[in-house]
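Figure-free illustration: sequence to structure, shown twice.
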Amino acid sequence: MTSQQGRGSVMFVAPSAYVLGGLGTWLDYMEPGLRALGWEVLMGLVEGPRHHRPQRYLAKHSHVNWHAIACTTGTQEGRLRAVERAINEFAPDLVATVNLPDALLGAARARRRGRPDLKIAMTVHGIQPDLYDDIRAHRGWLDRVFCTNRLACRLATAFGGVDAARVSHVPYGVDYAGPVLRHSGREPLRIAFVGRLEQDQKRIFDLSPILVELDACGIAYELLIAGSGPDEAALRAALAEPLATGKVRLLGFLSPTELRQQVLERVDALLLTSSWETGPIVIWEAMASGVAVVSSRYIGSGLEAALRHDENALLFPIGDCREAAAQLRRLSQAPALGNRLRAAAFRLIETRYSIPVSVANWDRHLRALREQPALSATPSIKAQPAPGRLDRWLGTGLAEQLRARLGPTGPDGGPGGEWPHSHGTTDYWDPEFWALAKTLDHPAVERSPP
């Protein structure tokens, strides 16, 4: 990979299992944006026995320059070899991985075996603790950690132990063509919830009590829910009555174009109930479309200092359904409030969260990474032996060669393993981690009045 305009070459190694959600949206604009600035960009989409299918991913997210990094054996050794082969074939200056620790290890092996100038980076798109376990495990040889959120940057140093000089803050960006004229004070209040339908992070079961509060206040509303996820059936049960009356509609997963046309161009407010976020992109998309944001003070919103209560958004404590409904009621009853929020939100998107701003920020930090010396402390990478007897009998190298001939087989003769999205072992609900996250993410905005 050789850039024609002198910027250099970067390979993003990404999971093809993430067909839905913000990661694909981010990569959709990163490739053309960086290419326009002179980077040679290759999307390395990992392929595995079950869930990682590049062709399925590409049906939703189109990329010009991509390569399938296929592991046919389903073993860690196979995954490391697949990454190393791709690096040796395309010879990028930089490798940036997305939730793929085996891609980090494969890149480290390639650097140790003959590519000493290769720079290796990890991109962080979440606040769950296992990601920072990965940073801590590899902090001695990671050249850069790219975080889309300021709290994630702090956690990379405080929990991950990486030097702050090797951490970059690179927020997401969205399409923005200028202020959009919207009408406030309509009835019913049209509300959107957009995201993965699950409880742990998104807190979707807060929706029902929020609607109960709105009903008690006599606020006429319609709620459009766009997304899919593991807790969808339980959500349908919780919202059975308003679904039956048509006050709530479940739209399923929508493409970015469908989301804009069917939801964001029609609603008055975006409701976000999350416990944590590193963006989210949907907030910036809503603001760019002129939709007022009513959001929890999610972990990740404090240090980022983007959402300002009563200035560009209306905020409520995580899990406080009564206060969430009160903020929606304010929006429905005060048209001037919605107009003021939208005007400030447009300024925020234009200056901090548009695609050109995001791409320019990535360009600056990637150039800095390319110019810094590669870290010399690269360990010898040995994969974990695969389950079963083959590795014990033949050793990992010969066993892997035999598996490559036989196809993907696990210890029982079935399909081998998938690409893991983390090697971390810290429990998702680890109290020490979340106490640290809350302490670091000190609120940078005034709390809403009681």
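We now fold a second protein in the same way, so the two outputs can be compared directly.
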Amino acid sequence: MDQRDVMRGALKATGVVKKGAQLKFGVIALVVFFVGLILLGMFFPAGQATASDCEDTGPGTADASATSDTGGSGTASGTLHEQQVAYAKAIDKQAQKAKLPGRATLIALMTAMQESTMQNLDHGHLDSVGLFQQRPKMGWGTKQQIMTPSFAADSFFLGRGTNDGLVDIKGWQKMPLGTAAQKVQNSAHPELYAGHETAMRKLAKDADIDLERGGSSAGTSADASGDDKPVTSENNGCGVAKPGTGGAGGSAGGKFSDGTQTWKLNNPRSVEDAIAWAKKHSGSGSSNDWYQRCLAFTAIVYGWNVSGVNYAIDHYSVVPKSMQHDGDRHPPAGALMYWDTGHRAGHIAVYLGNGKVASNDILRPGYIDVVDAELFETKWGAKYIGWTPPVFPKAG
């Protein structure tokens, strides 16, 4: 029964819809009804999840198909408690995958209990859906993606599109649990998350979840020991064949010119071959191995096995100053373009010519697509930095 059904029932009960009813008593009853609705909302508020005002390191929000594993798109069955245990396990699985501590799982459980009573809802406030009541219109993904518990949990922990995740909140691991949840959700009722701690500790015990588990506050940038270790082209586990020999490069690189200066390249793959390779492995030819791996992609496009640099944004600075074209929006085909996303890593893409770039995550998380170069600014709110020739001073 939705609110319209309740309203119709209430109006019928007050006699407002009956011909000849006494208006005075109907109005009084209607006022009492609305006061009741307000009180009901205070005790049982609708879940809300709105976007935060900063950008992610790369992932977009689009049409990647949801996975179909039990912890993914499957709807839990059984009693309410059994379903809650199943969803709790799915959430914790993603926390462990991201190498986050048990405290992160607890915050996520408290959040999901407040937002959806730990149910994978296909409805909610406005267009909110799923365990965390994330909104497609606010950039959390498509409805199908958000209804995938593993995808929704990843979004809560790591962020999605222009929305902050838990790991993006500075000092989250030392905040009160409810405060950390609110920093991600931006709820109209920030005080309500904390009240679920005791119940969620019990649920975690029922689900055999170790809330005392250690981990890193930085999420996927952590190694098994808990030490922060940024995701780089060396350790990103990219599931593609190594396309080049690396090392000292090769004669295939050729020359690269901006019309004023000309540079000799030593990449294992020429500019023409690199552009062809990028196009071939974009769109329908793309695997789904590229989530937040923009720097790895650009290095592999040019035949390198590793970029030798930890973050995309840092690659701009390791390129010689004479090759940096700050703010120039007219790069030659094959150039590397850079954006400040508001987060540590930034973003890098390969320019293909005619205003198009090959990039991961912008249309589909984890996939490579050919898009307009300006899309990072209009969709992610990123700030364009400039371009450089396709040089990799630290690559191998």
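Summary for the second example: The first strand starts at residue 255 and ends at 257.
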